[in-house]
Please model this.
Amino acid sequence: MLQTTLCYLDIGDRTLMLHRIKKKDDVNRDKWIGIGGKFEHGESPEECMLREFKEETGLTLEAWAYRGIVTFVSDSWCEYMHLFTATEVSGCLRECDEGTLEWVDWKDVCSLPIWEGDKVFLRLLRERETFFSLKLVYDGERLARAVLDGRELPV
Model:
């Protein structure tokens, strides 16, 4: 099972997003996502998130919260994504080799080209303070099913 992290840095009403446009064989190509990546051997979710955030942005996170876990299921892959938000950083933002980093107003995030399931967990990040477990089942690129804390959600 693939293990990844994803973090959204929130400053005021904006969040830092990555527009994935630089890699050719990228499952997220042309999508807008948060900052994160795959676990290295022996890493905890926090260690992976902090390392990936630094590698992709040049920034060091100073204040963050572990907000949830998202289980992705499709016909060709399964993934556990550990989801974080952050509110304080130090350092200087630098260019990312995986895409373009841009500050986006929260009100505009869901109008960008993002995965359907991302809209579900992004809403939860904005509306809910408690930790959550979300399962997103895809049929190709279409969200077929969403289950929040063991309860089916409409999709």
In short: Residues 2-153 form a domain with the Nucleoside Triphosphate Pyrophosphohydrolase fold (CATH 3.90.79.10). The beta strands are 2-11, 14-19, 32-33, 35-38, 60-73, 78-90, 100-105, 132-139, 142-148, 151-153. Residues 5 and 119 are 17 Å apart (CA to CA). Helices lie at 45-57, 106-109, 116-127.
